[in-house]
Amino acid sequence: MRRADASSRRPRRRIPGDASRHHSGPRAASSRKHALIMRQLSVPAYLMACLLLGGASAAGYMANLTLQLAAILVLYIALFWRRRGPISPPSRQLLVLAALFVGLFLIQIVPLPPALWTSLPGREPILRGFELLGVPAPWLPISLNAQHTLASLFWMLPALAVLLGITLLGGYKASYLAWTILAVAAVSVAVGGIQVAGGENSPWYLYQITNRGVAVGFFSNANHLATMLLAAIPLLTAVVLSERGRGKNTARSSGIAVIGAAVFLVIALGLILNRSLAGWGLALPVLGASLLLFLSHRRKLPKWALGGAAIAAVGGVALVLTAPLGNNLTTDEARTSSTSRYASFGRTLSATPEYLPTGSGIGTFVDVYRSREDPSQITRFYMNHAHSDLLEVLLETGLFGAALLLLFLIWWTRRVFAIWHDAESDSFTKAATIVSATVMAHSLVDYPLRTVAISAIFAMSIALMAEPRAHSRRSKAKTESDVRHLSAD
Fold it and tell me: Residue 262 CB: number of other CB atoms within 10 A?
């Protein structure tokens, strides 16, 4: 008898497709299902954390640090655990813009040789300082304060995490995101009601520097709660339309309508208790756009509808700025106050040309503004932001930031027209256009994007605009892979 070859005694390898693979089928399917659930809940859960903890820009450092550390984890998962499905062209364009945005931060903190940075506008005082000390000029970056620029980049990590979590990871359902914002908005109104009832010394105010006497919820600034409440209105409309479209049951439709009306009344009460002039001014155009969203669910809107909504938005803002409602931008009192928007806008605009074309550096507004204040008017209060994100971006980033902002506005405008003229665009995608427009409009006269909570909402909205959901995809959901299900409502 021949001795058996040693290789014949080795255990057989399992090869793809043999019978042994089927034993792990249920376990693999269960694993895929759990991974799908984790993906769908990851971004909504992180968004909720941003809304609850990221309500301040100049306060809440530990809460914001926690969100930044968590953002690093979300970004890691989004970059290295990407979905297998293709990324839409609008998403790729948005990711390129995000990369350019991050690149702008990095360019501003790269040290430059003295011959280069001393030739930049606005650097003469720095150079004179080294000359008075008798010290050779060192290598310095474009930013007047590189530490603040780097800190500002860390501050934007949560928004980037939400953006990449949607566009790359695909870990979300639009309805989950909407319900997250609606839930936090409703709780914020309840907290705001307790704050108002307790008076200016109420212990329910979460931040020491805040707008006491009005409802601020989980924010430190009343205007920023107003921004979130306004964003909740079109999202509420989208949720109602989505839930009504799931069935023809009359009782179910009636119940959804009642719940939607109740949530809307809560939001309206919040805006009243909040007393934000910008919130009141933007309420009318937001309501009008939400009505267009509701009507577009069953019929095609006329071409002038979007133009009419834009005119209403301009009219709402103009009403607040011109009406005698006590705004601190156009009133006579604002012109004589050193802490008004009138003073802030004027000084920011006058300082901007001195730092063109590179800007003073992201995060350097306070340093630049203090250098231009009248010493006789300095009090214990100071301007932490320009109260206009547009003006602050122009001061800190110069022509490069303005060009990047223009590119984004072109992308955003094209997406708005594409979404609203596509009969198959779903309600959440259209609601996202209203939300993003609301945040940008408010940013003209305030700094909502400087808070983690509002920047996360804005990132969510533009990500939804980049990842459009068509009604027709729902009927195909059962025939697509598990990964493709991630992009289904």
Answer: 10
- Rounded distance, CA 456 to CA 459, Å? 5
Full domain range(s) for residue 334: 42-126+137-473
Cα distance between residue 396 and residue 143, in whole Å: 8
Backbone angles phi, psi at 37, to 5 degrees: -65, -40
One-letter amino acid of 16: P
Q: Is 387 left (phi over 0), alpha (psi -120 to 50) or beta?
A: left
Selection from 463, 428, 405 nearest residue 162 by Cα:
463
CA distance 150 to 148: 5
With tokens 């979007």, the residue in question is 306
Distances 326 to 16, 78, 331, 332, 464 between C-alpha atoms, Å = 73, 46, 7, 10, 37
Where residue 67 falls (left for φ over 0; alpha for ψ -120 to 50; beta otherwise) is: alpha
Note whether residue 8 is domain-resident.
Answer: no
CA 349, 223, 164, 479 torsion-angle sign: negative
Per-residue model confidence (pLDDT) at position 387: 86
Q: How far, in Å, CA of 33 to CA of 39, rounded?
A: 10
Q: Total structural domains in the chain?
A: 1
Q: Identify whether 321 is part of a domain.
A: yes
Name the pTM for this structure. Answer: 0.85
How many residues can be counted in the chain?
489
Residues of the chain with pLDDT under 50: 1-23, 470-489
Say if 415 falls within a structural domain. yes
| CB 386, CB 447: distance < 8 Å | yes
Is position 196 within any domain? yes
